[in-house]
Amino acid sequence: MAAIFHLSSQSEPLPELTALVWDKLLHTIEYAGLGFLVFRALAGEGVNKTSAALLTLAVVSGYGATDEWHQSFVPMRNADVRDWLVDTLGALIGPAVYVSTASRRRRRPRR
Fold this sequence. Notes:
Number of helices: 5
Number of domains: 1
Helix content: over 70%
Shape: elongated
Order of helices and strands: HHHHH
Largest sheet: none
Number of strands: 0
Distance between the termini: 38 Å
């Protein structure tokens, strides 16, 4: 969250990267990473998968909304509901990736 806040505080964050990569893809990736970490933390504390996924969605999507609001105060930046929607998509992708990779690790035979 701190890294996202830091980048959102800059008028032109990572101009070399943002010139080459679609900003919606960058939003999806960063919020999928956040969703992965939040879900992992909740699951690690014993929260069942459904509750962890719903809490992750609420926390990460909520953070995305506050991040967009924060950007409205940054020069040369603005709040965009489409960015928040792809942030929310990332909040769904992160837990799905975690569950998928965790189930693959469990199926792998031990040596």
